[in-house]
Design brief:
- The complex is a heterodimer of chains A (551) and B (247).
- Chain A is 4% helix and 35% strand.
- The longest helix of chain A has 13 residues.
- The radius of gyration of chain A is 22 Å and the shape is globular.
- With 247 residues, chain B is of the alpha+beta class.
- In chain B, strand 4 and strand 5 form a beta hairpin.
- The relative contact order of chain B is 0.11.
- The chains are: A mainly beta (551), B alpha+beta (247).
- The interface between A and B is large, with 56 and 49 residues.
- Strand 10 of chain A pairs antiparallel with strand 6 of chain B, so a sheet runs across the interface.
Chain lengths: 551, 247
């Protein structure tokens, strides 16, 4: 306890503030992506009394509700998988406006999925399933501007991630890294909708890094940016995860063997100047990825001591089942550690961040690889609490049989060069676990095991609680210090979204999307037949403590 | 009589078996892929199981060709040659207990193919490598592209004409002291919608009428958005446009 108090004091002294308070302003809470709120009205001593106060049914059940709500000044903004947006009174759930986007008439690559909107400059920003970025008037729900960022019928790409507001711009990525597609990150002027810059994650001929690509493979080399990045205002750097190269399982047609790294800047975290989109540094986590270990997840920005020296850090997990710690000023690799128990694709990670003893899939023969292409962690996001100093991480202990089937690139078409069949990890007694880690050393402080996969994001609060939900429909709270389960509530449908907390007139609310669906969830019934009964849905359920005097 | 039937059946069955094998190979390459279906149509990947689902051949054929709107299931009707589509349908049908047809595959209509220069022009028109500089950022042709500009009605006869294209529909808007080129999409009592053409891609912007003034005439020139192409490229693009306007 004394250690913890000292730690809390030391952390407070840094004055790095990644906590939210009354509002939940950004996808990851703040631009630092902690998914942590300082609110502590609901805490370990009273969480058992937490009760639902309102629910909002979106009516859009396709692919479940995978969103993160944004809450500003008592209004809650919520998007659904088919690009519908709602503004609600955050205290009562009353509908204020609804933005009706036309429902898909054609195929949507990977299916319609939306993980959230962004709010800034009087607008709500929506990336649509058909590759438009739209600014909606925050007050009225009317469209202010709309710009097409790619042709969904041609590119095999779709926008799934929440945009990120950075100064006068809104930055948005795209999915499509398993199609024959060249990834990018686009910054748009918040006021006008004009494209300010676009950073292609694969350099064009003549640009540095292009030499790492063989022949024309760069044109369709993947490198998607399908989740949401972070921003450090002091450094003016935007951080974003970039997915693996396509074709996923077969590197021979794309890997040139020239230059440093492989197939740059795929399988990397990139740091870009926020004003110009120019590359400041990159850290390639898995050079020559052949397992679909996609590095497109969130970048958590924390300041912590490393070997006796305070460092500005970026902690990042990809699908490989490893976390990577880098200096976010320079991109220098500092540490890496596994977050899953089953990681047979390598025999070790060297001190300078190189994987040795790699086990690679081959043509015409199944190779059992753990973790699977669904990821040692799926996209559902981690949380970081400055009070405990722990990073909280969901994991998935799945494996897959990989077989390489070489393919030729056809723009916009699926381009994985192989298939995967998901398998439970050998001798596994659980499908996943939620763990507390020292984010720098990777020391696991506690672990909460779970039978199926935990596919919802985590929320950490100043009440020393960790909230998340499971596929069976339970929304629950763990003690942030011990992992003990303190409360749970059956919401009626499984969880694949991201809970947030906020306050209105001094009352703390905890809002969770419920609604089972998504690509990963569709893999469950083949692994656990009873999962076929997990029901879809699309509802936001909001909890609070009963008010004094209220019945 | 029996002898005759057998003699007739053998080549037909062989044809069915060849088709089945080809269908299986094509399925493994095209359908049993990453986030899509599993080999053999079993469950185990993320897209639905296809074996023993009770699908009939018509349904399989329709879905393979057209896809399922609103889902990840893409239509392959314009992606794969028709003979390949038939083979895949035969294979997936076989997973649903439908034996390869004793009738030879239906006679397919000849596929439309553009002449080489037009095909080259098509590629350039939609070329992703050119980013927002490609024609398809604003124009639709051959059923593809983002139709921001009105349909291409009159195809310029020469590259010079294309470069110097008159664009009377481009006007000048002024909003809060800033002037920029626009095309007007709609002007109603409550809102004015324009495409802001300042730089590609165009932005569809909505204003209350009092916030925007629009005047005829503009400094904007079509030539200013053609920098991604050489004259030779533009020549091929014109050939492509002519080819698809005839069909």
């Amino acid at each position: 306890m004394r250690t913890l108090s000292c730690l809390a004091f030391a952390l407070a002294a840094l004055a790095q503030d990644g906590a939210t308070r009354a509002d939940w302003t950004y996808h990851g809470g703040t631009q630092l992506a902690w998914r942590y709120s300082a609110l502590d009205q609901v805490n370990r001593s009273n969480v058992a009394k937490l009760a639902p106060v309102w629910a909002f049914q979106t009516g859009d059940y396709e692919m479940g509700l995978q969103s993160t709500p944004i809450v500003i000044d008592g209004r809650l903004y919520l998007s659904t998988s088919r690009s519908q947006v709602y503004a609600l009174d955050a205290a009562t759930g009353k509908l204020i406006w609804q933005f009706k986007y036309p429902l898909p008439r054609g195929t949507v690559p990977y299916g319609p999925q939306n993980r959230g909107i962004a709010v800034g400059g009087g607008h709500v920003f929506l990336g649509t399933y058909d590759d438009y970025l739209i600014a909606i008037d925050q007050k009225t729900g009317e469209e202010a501007w709309k710009v097409n960022l790619d042709d969904v019928k041609q590119c095999g790409c779709t926008i799934t991630g929440a945009p990120l507001v950075v100064k006068d711009k809104v930055i948005v990525g795209g999915a499509g890294g398993d199609s024959a597609h060249r990834g990018y990150l686009t910054a748009v002027n918040m006021k006008t909708g004009r494209v300010a810059w676009r950073f292609y994650t694969i350099p064009a001929p003549g640009e540095k890094g292009h030499e790492t690509w063989k022949g024309d493979s760069w044109k369709y080399g993947g490198g998607a940016t399908w989740m949401t990045g972070s921003f450090d205002p002091a450094l003016n750097l935007v951080y974003w995860g970039v997915g693996n190269a396509a074709a996923d399982l077969d590197a021979s047609p794309r890997f040139s063997g020239e230059g440093e790294g492989a197939n740059l800047y795929t399988a990397s975290v990139i740091a870009l100047d926020a004003d110009t989109g120019k590359l400041k540094w990159y850290h390639q986590e898995i050079p020559k990825d052949v397992w679909d270990y996609d590095s497109s997840y969130e970048c958590v920005l924390v300041d912590r001591e490393v070997r006796g020296k305070m460092r500005k850090l970026l902690v990042h997990i990809n699908k490989s089942g490893y976390a990577f710690v880098v200096d976010r000023v320079t991109g220098e690799y500092l540490n890496g550690y596994p977050i899953v128990d089953n990681h047979n694709w390598n025999t070790g990670l060297t001190e300078d961040g190189k994987f040795i003893g790699r086990v690679e899939p081959v043509a015409g023969k199944q190779t059992l690889i753990c973790p699977s292409a669904l990821g040692g962690k799926s996209w559902n996001e981690v949380a970081y609490s400055p009070r405990t100093g722990f990073m909280y991480t969901p994991s998935a202990e799945l494996c897959n049989n990989l077989t390489v089937v070489p393919q030729e690139a056809k723009e916009g078409q699926s381009f994985t060069s192989g298939n995967w069949i998901f398998r439970l990890a050998p001798n596994a007694t659980y499908g996943s676990h939620l763990d507390a880690y020292d984010p720098v050393t990777g020391k696991r402080e506690w672990s909460y095991p779970y039978k199926y996969l935990l596919l919802a994001s985590l929320l950490a609060t100043g009440g020393d609680l960790i909230f998340t939900g499971d596929p069976e429909g339970f929304f629950f709270a763990l003690d942030a210090r011990t992992g003990a389960k303190l409360w749970s509530f059956q919401t009626g449908s499984g969880h694949r979204g991201s809970a947030v907390t906020y306050s209105v007139n001094g009352r703390q609310f905890i809002a969770t999307p419920t609604g089972w669906g998504s690509i990963a969830s569709s893999a469950l019934p083949a692994l656990w037949p009873e999962a076929d009964a997990f029901r879809g849905g699309s509802t936001l359920i909001v909890f609070a403590l009963p008010q004094e005097g209220a019945r | 009589m029996i002898r005759i039937t057998v003699a007739l059946l053998i080549p037909v069955l062989a044809c069915g078996q060849d088709l089945l094998k080809r269908g299986a190979d094509l399925y493994n390459k095209t359908c049993a892929n990453g986030y899509c279906h599993s080999p053999g149509g079993t469950s185990g990947s993320t897209a639905p199981r296809l074996a023993a689902r009770g699908f009939d051949a018509d349904y399989i054929s329709r879905v393979v060709r057209q896809g399922i709107p609103g889902t990840p299931m893409a239509g392959f009707g314009t992606v794969l040659p028709r003979a390949d589509l038939t083979a895949i349908v035969v294979y997936v049908a076989s997973l649903n207990g439908i034996a390869p047809s004793r009738n030879p595959a239906p006679r397919e209509e000849p596929e439309k193919k553009l002449p080489p220069e037009a095909a080259q022009g098509r590629e350039l028109f939609f070329d992703s490598v050119r980013g927002f500089g490609r024609c398809a950022t604003c124009h639709q042709a051959d059923g593809q592209g983002i139709p921001i500009a009105s349909a291409i009605a009159k195809i310029p006869t020469t590259v010079a004409e294309l470069r110097q294209l008159q664009t009377p529909s481009v006007r000048t808007a002024t909003v809060a002291g800033e002037s920029f080129p626009v095309t007007v999409v709609s002007q109603a009592s409550k809102q004015t919608k324009v495409y802001d053409l300042t730089s590609p891609p165009p932005v569809l912007r909505t204003f209350v009428p009092s916030a925007i003034t629009v005047k005829d005439g503009s400094q904007w020139r079509h030539e200013s958005v053609l920098s991604a192409y050489s004259d030779a490229d533009l020549q091929s693009i014109l050939v492509f446009l002519r080819a698809v306007s005839k069909s």
